[in-house]
Amino acid sequence: MLLKVNPNRMELLRLRRRLILAQRGHKLLEDKLEQMLRRFTLLVKEIETARQDFNLRTERMLRDLLYCRITSEKEDFKSSLSKIIQELKIRISFLKILNVKVPVFEIEKFKIDRQYDFFKTSAQLDLVIAQARDYLGSLLRLAQLLKTLEILSFEIERTRRRVNALEFLLIPYIQDTIRYINQKLAEFERGNLTRLMRIKEIIRAH
Q: Is the pTM of this model over 0.85?
């Protein structure tokens, strides 16, 4: 397919410069895509590790809470949970991975006030509370990685579309148009040469 241009030398020069820029942009986008795919693979492994860590912590906390429930009276257990006062503040910042903006979740403030009767609850509840900050940190870490994966996936798909558009559409169109203009200019040259030769013949005949 040809671009809509006038077949002249100015357009030819302009298209040659445009072709160089398109090829350079294509190479840069290909390199970026390769780096993002490599980072994507590493991120998937990080997510798997973070998920395992979070699942283990969840399993441990649920086991401890179940133990507390079994070893305490139901009303005492519910009353103790209701008397746990917590304060949580999360800071969200951003960083760039291969020029892609991704979020970072951090615990800015975490405080727990235990106002329950220690003699009416199991010591396991204290362990659960002691592990709460690390548990939330593990959850935020997993959420951060999953969100990063989502953003990176979108950027990979967008970059792949741009690479394909350059490789299979724009660059071939420019190359075809350059060939077309070269052919047209060659035809003009042959036509001019033919006219000059006829003029010379006419002049010689007179």
A: no
Residue-wise pLDDT for 69-97, tens only, equals 888 888 878 888 888 888 999 999 999 98
pLDDT in tens, 121-131: 778 888 888 89
Torsion of CA 149, 154, 159, 164, to 10 degrees: 120
User: Which amino acid, one-letter code, is at 152?
Assistant: L
Q: How many domains does the chain have?
A: 1
- d(CA 12, CA 3) in angstroms, rounded, equals 12
Strand locations in the chain (E): 84-97, 100-114
Q: 109: domain range?
A: 9-197
Encoded tokens for 108: 């800015």
Q: Could you tell me the CATH number of the domain that includes residue 171?
A: 1.10.287.3240
- 3-state percent helix, strand, coil for the chain, nearest multiple of 5: 75, 15, 10
With beta carbons less than 8 A apart as the criterion, state whether 107 and 140 touch: yes
Whether 51 contacts 142, CB under 8 Å: yes
